Amino acid sequence: MPEASAPRPGDAAPPSVCRWAVLMEYDGRDFIGWQRQPVDSLISIQGLLEGAARKLTAGRNVPSITAGRTDAGVHASGQVAHLDFPADVTLSSATVRDGLNFYMKPHPVVILMARPVLPQWNARFSANARAYRYRILNRAARPALEVGRVWHVKSPLDVSLMQQAASALRGRHDFTSFRATACQARSPIRTLDQLDVRREGEYVVIETRARSFLHHQVRNMAGTLKLVGEGRWAPERVEQALAARDRRAAGPTAPPDGLCLTEVGYEDNPFTR
Amino acid sequence: MPEASAPRPGDAAPPSVCRWAVLMEYDGRDFIGWQRQPVDSLISIQGLLEGAARKLTAGRNVPSITAGRTDAGVHASGQVAHLDFPADVTLSSATVRDGLNFYMKPHPVVILMARPVLPQWNARFSANARAYRYRILNRAARPALEVGRVWHVKSPLDVSLMQQAASALRGRHDFTSFRATACQARSPIRTLDQLDVRREGEYVVIETRARSFLHHQVRNMAGTLKLVGEGRWAPERVEQALAARDRRAAGPTAPPDGLCLTEVGYEDNPFTR
Q: Could you tell me the fold of the domain covering A17-125?
């Protein structure tokens, strides 16, 4: 995901298609992630969505692009994608939503809202913000009600220390230390507009927002902040890890369970207009 | 569950046992309910708990009593039970909690806290309050993140009408119209200390509290209030249904998915002292 995300030539829908934006919620537990995979036995959210669109159009090809290609086990309450339906297929917003939801049953993936968009509107390249929530269940007992939806950390976390460490990561930085070694983004520079840590009873909640994130960036930040919360790292060490520009200088990658894509921002938001 | 719940002769632990109170969280989806069943293929929360206690004591018999015998599919975030361990088994609070949690794996049932209690303290008969939350997901799309944890109602609910209808049920009444026909309580009289309906975004949340409830009472109230929220029943009809003292006069039983036992109250609360 490049920092500058202006529409590119070729991103606009060709005149033969009718582009729809969809707002999605899913439980990432049972999926290998967003992206369709060559092996059919592995179920992806994209594969499920496009398969449902194919059924809804009696076998036509309906390609999709998403705002955030979430990894296996990562959830979404506000994911956005667009689908290019053949132009001769005319559907209402309710039919796109209900029809796709019907064909994606019984998988835990749903369309909350569907809206027709202009051909130059692009779920990925028109997005100017992504927001994620990372939830840690911080208590002795493993989760029963939130299995697969939280990172279970037994040792008590000091949230004020985590918040102090988080301040070093806010703003524009080279996030090489917090990016997956396999990350394909051209630049490691990102601007974190928000990174907050708060306690909500037994939960420690990390909220973060940026134009875009590097691969594993949120989970690597969560895994590092947890070390600070446990008292194993001084808050200052996070600033040093950032300055090192070396993945090995930061903490481990937190599990996907706790991560949820909560919102994608657009200047022209099809779901709020 | 009788309205008067003073300890009865025989409820106290015999001197040969050491009584422990446990605070529990569980996802009721995979269970036939709290109560142990004669058929072993059906998993109950009680069966799982007593089975774990048996393993923790190398095969000893450890009977349990709960504050609320939840039905199949009903969840708990604050259930309370007591366990009578043989007096010669000495365990710490952390060992009771962690040991039971270990042996209940991988089922979605956990002990949040374990505390030794006096022999006359009884999880069921010492309880002076039960609080339940009933959650309705009120939107077009079926749930993806909260599958099995909410009642999905598509038609928009008017919460102010539901709240208006709820006021007729608060206080001391004969709840025959809202009690399961199979309910075994001697008296249909109960005192509802709280019954509130509020909207939280896409959710409609019903919170209720009483010394005790009749069988299916909360789900029957939720199923009836939903008819009011949909505009199919005028709020006044709920008062009439109550006055009828006839199960057929009230609305249908709401599904167990939305129900969660959130708290059990005690004058002598072992978990807060």
A: Alpha-Beta Plaits (3.30.70)
